[in-house]
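Tokens for chain A. Residues wanted.
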């Protein structure tokens, strides 16, 4: 029995190996004869391709950042307000300068009196000078007649005498005074303070112009950036739609799973949302730019500046730039003038504590 088992195993193996080989050949021949799947159709042609670089290069017309800055300065009410403050400070300096001029006071008074009835200087009866010769004619002595005639004449003169009454009275007074001590202790520091305030107000005009110009440039570049973002969003949407067409063709051909198409479809929807948001951003940025530049509603905005151009290099180290800013920036210079004005105002207040010497003349 032990000798018979190896013989049986040998015969079984001899029969099974050819059968297995035939089965493998049959499977390979059936696989070679199966039809191949058709090639996937070509992807859909995408829509108009957005040239992002062309958008950033500008349209060759419209405004630039410098144009926006200049228009913002020309139409800004903040600059007008700074100019009004400068005129007010200039008027204050002129008013302070007037304190150096001696004070001249003139007064003229007029009085009108009522009519006054004068009384007589004598208590006796009133004598008519025409009747005096007849009265003294009865006196025989010439000397006595002469004395009596003179006495009667004097009495008549005194009885008829009246004092002159001036009904119109005029009074004129002139006074010239100069604050000698206050001119150096109060007037001069006050004038210097007013001059420093005027200089600070003048520098504030330049500061306001630069700030408005910077705001105009920022609004312009915000609008240009919004347009660039819209171009990028549209380009992304075009690419997403093209990719969706390819994946859909692969799914129809059976070489891709339907879940891949759903994922790409979600990306297309997200790209469309991004385009809508970018369009809203362009409208918001355009409205902000038009409001800052005081443009009429509906004015067409076009970017005429190459945003991809090279920038002017900044020369100098950080310390050099900081030092230059501290010495040349108008806002810092204005602050220094304001500090000087406050110091002069303190000097004027301290000068008021000393005794005052005034030179005055009256007429």
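Reply:
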């Amino acid at each position: 029995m032990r000798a018979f088992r190896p013989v049986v195993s040998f015969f079984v193996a001899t029969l099974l190996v050819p059968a297995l080989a035939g089965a493998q050949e049959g499977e390979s021949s059936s696989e070679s004869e199966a039809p191949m799947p058709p090639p996937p159709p070509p992807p859909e042609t995408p829509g108009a391709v957005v040239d992002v670089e062309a958008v950033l290069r500008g349209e060759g017309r419209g405004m630039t950042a410098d144009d926006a800055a200049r228009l913002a300065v020309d139409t800004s009410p903040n600059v007008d307000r700074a100019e009004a403050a400068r005129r007010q400070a200039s008027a204050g300096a002129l008013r302070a300068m007037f304190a150096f001029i001696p004070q001249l006071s003139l007064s003229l008074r007029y009085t009108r009196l009522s009519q006054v009835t004068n009384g007589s200087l004598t208590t006796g009866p009133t004598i008519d000078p025409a009747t005096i010769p007849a009265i003294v004619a009865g006196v025989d002595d010439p000397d006595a007649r002469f004395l009596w005639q003179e006495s009667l004449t004097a009495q008549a003169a005194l009885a008829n005498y009246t004092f002159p009454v001036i009904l119109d009275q005029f009074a004129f007074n002139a006074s010239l005074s100069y604050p000698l001590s206050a001119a150096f202790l109060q007037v001069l520091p006050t004038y210097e303070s007013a001059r420093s305030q005027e200089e600070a107000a003048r520098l504030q005009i330049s500061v306001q112009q630069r700030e408005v110009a910077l705001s105009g440039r920022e609004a312009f570049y915000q609008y240009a950036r919004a347009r660039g973002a819209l171009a990028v969003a549209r380009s992304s949407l075009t690419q997403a739609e093209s990719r969706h067409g390819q994946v859909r063709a692969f799914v129809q051909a059976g070489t891709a799973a339907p879940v891949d198409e759903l994922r790409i479809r979600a990306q297309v929807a997200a790209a469309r949302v991004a385009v809508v948001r970018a369009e809203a951003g362009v409208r918001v940025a355009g409205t902000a730019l038009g409001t800052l530049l005081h443009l009429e509603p509906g004015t067409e905005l076009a970017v005429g500046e190459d945003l991809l151009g090279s920038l002017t290099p900044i020369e100098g180290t950080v310390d050099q730039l900081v030092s230059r800013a501290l010495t040349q920036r108008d806002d810092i210079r204005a602050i220094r003038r304001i500090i000087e004005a406050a110091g002069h105002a303190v000097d004027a207040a301290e000068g008021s504590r000393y005794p005052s010497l005034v030179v005055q003349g009256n007429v």
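The chain has one domain: 45-113+174-362. Residues 127 and 155 are 7 Å apart (CA to CA).
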